[in-house]
Specification:
Oligomer: single chain
Low-confidence stretches: 390-407
Largest sheet: 5 strands, parallel
Shape: elongated
Number of helices: 24
Length: 526
């Protein structure tokens, strides 16, 4: 006899066998027991949650000769005929491959004839959202006024594609994702019945990987058992078969990210690729790992919500102390965006490497999340007593992460009038740039203002692109006009690029202040 896959072998045969959809099961049983059976049902929900299984059970229950508490007996002649597929009372249609108008017309012709046995003719249309517009229109009249002996059960994973005219003619039942605990308990029950030795931790991971789908969980179990047939199915075996990653790897990656060690992150990713780990699953699991960390930091009694060993929980608590909640949320957002991109990406590795660079080098981005992280890092350095360079990029090197930076201060003497102009414009420089707006604002983000001579100031740009925009005559004219209008001063502006090794730590003092301080004449050289 050929082998039968676990998800087919253990498909629920009665309502009592259905797991995780108690709200739907109870409603349907009540309808059958009270004789208040509808003529059209819409079962919608994610894959593997029991839509087709419940539809088949319901089809047997409404025709069963000896129903038990609303469930089919599965022993009478009608039930056995439906189970074997020999009964004409139950018709299953796959709308993915039978989605034309002619297929629906065949149904309209068939419903004219009452069932030869039992009470109802039941039509189960799976993936009903795949029907064409013409097919939906052909189905409408039959759905609205079907014969008393006809029941339609429409199943779909994409209810948003169902026309409103069809929705309004059906009783809608939303199938929810099955909880991880329910799936794990079912797997434990089946492995015991199948005499498959398996660790509870391995079954728990399979339940998590199934993402609320019982069918996916059974298929994954089948796959793992086939690879390690006759042996104890361990947690490491499951990780190996599914191409998944152990939580210790995530711990090492997170610590490297927190320390800004881009190279280490890329190297760890390389190791995972060499080991044959599935990159899409790696990203999903890393998001889950970060989610657990965030729960520990923000939710009360989070330990009760996290299904993990005491050792893993202790390690997670240690890492939660290393990072703040805002940064964690940024990490989750970055990897959530990455997860969506990977579905259609040809170069998954490159996208993941870019994501790690974004996490370890927030100064490369100008969105709010990265700015908040950079500010947080600077605050931590100040708390530790470090002197902060204005050009500090946040992660110059891992070995210098907490080293104190000492920058010699340069003092330059300029005439009093120049110092007054410089002080006035420097004080309001941010406001001036914001008011001018347009292309000036981003180009002037990293600029400083220095003396440029009598009635003249010099704008120093940090990048070539910004310099190209800011050095235009129209921009400088607009700046001079603004200063003239708001400050009543006729100042000219010139520009230059900052040298690669130049640091912005110059202090300007007036010649008059210096004379008073040292009581001697000062000669200022050009």
């Amino acid at each position: 006899m050929s082998y039968t896959a676990l998800y087919r072998k253990w498909r629920p045969a009665s309502f009592q066998d259905v797991k995780g959809q108690e709200h739907i099961v109870q409603t349907l049983k009540n309808q059958i027991e009270s004789g208040r059976v509808g003529h059209a049902y819409l079962f919608c929900g994610t894959r593997g949650t029991g839509k087709t299984s419940i539809a088949k059970i319901f089809a047997r229950a409404v025709n069963c000769e000896h129903p038990v508490s609303g469930s089919p007996c599965n022993e009478c002649e009608i039930c056995r005929g439906i189970i074997t597929g020999s009964s004409m009372n139950v018709v299953e249609i796959d709308a993915a491959s039978n989605n034309g108008v002619e297929n629906i017309r065949e149904i309209r012709e068939q419903v004219q004839y009452p069932p030869t046995e039992g009470k109802y003719r039941v039509y189960i249309i799976d993936e009903v959202h795949m029907l064409s517009t013409g097919a939906f229109n052909a189905l409408l009249k039959t759905l609205e006024e079907p014969p008393a002996y006809v029941i339609f059960i429409l199943a779909t994973t994409e209810v948003n594609k169902i026309p409103v005219t069809v929705l309004s003619r059906c009783q809608r039942y939303d199938f929810k994702r099955i909880s991880m605990e329910t799936v794990a308990a079912r797997l434990k029950e089946l492995t015991k019945a199948e005499q498959i030795p398996a660790e509870e931790r391995a079954l728990a991971y399979l339940a998590k990987a199934a993402d609320g789908s019982m069918r996916d969980a059974l298929s994954l179990l089948d796959q793992c058992v086939a690879f390690h047939y006759g042996k104890l199915l361990t947690y490491d075996n499951v990780l190996e078969v599914l191409g998944a990653v152990d939580s210790s790897v995530f711990s090492g990656l997170l610590r490297a990210v927190i320390a800004g060690q881009t190279t280490q992150c890329i190297q760890k990713l390389e190791e995972l690729i060499v080991q044959g780990r599935e990159l899409g699953q790696f990203v999903i699991d890393f998001i889950w790992y970060l989610r657990n960390l965030l729960l520990l930091k923000t939710a009360e009694s989070a330990e009760t919500m996290l299904d993990m060993s005491e050792d893993n929980l202790r390690q997670l608590k240690e890492e939660a102390e290393l990072i703040d909640g805002e940064t964690l949320m940024r990490y989750i957002r970055v990897f959530s965006e990455l997860s969506n991109q990977l579905r259609y990406a040809g170069q998954k590795r490159v996208l993941i490497e870019m994501a790690f660079i974004r996490l370890t080098r927030p100064q490369m981005e100008y969105n709010l999340d990265s700015v908040i992280q950079r500010i947080s890092e600077l605050e931590n350095r100040v708390t530790e007593g470090a002197v902060i360079d204005r050009n500090y990029d946040g992660h110059e090197a891992s070995k210098q992460q907490h080293a104190e930076i000492e920058i010699p201060v340069k003092e330059v003497v300029i005439p009093k009038a120049q110092l007054e102009d410089l002080t006035l414009i420097r004080r309001d420089w941010g406001k001036i740039v914001r008011d001018l707006g347009g292309s000036i604002r981003p180009a002037f983000r990293e600029t400083t203002v220095e003396p440029g001579g009598d009635n003249c100031l010099c704008i120093v740009f940090g990048s070539e692109d910004s310099y190209a925009i800011g050095s235009r005559a129209t921009v400088l004219s607009a700046l001079e006009a603004y200063v003239r209008e708001h400050y009543g001063k006729d100042l000219c502006f010139k520009v230059r690029k900052r040298d690669a090794q130049e640091t912005v730590n110059t202090i300007y003092v007036s010649d008059e202040e210096l004379k008073n301080a040292i009581h001697m004449d000062i000669t200022i050289e050009d």
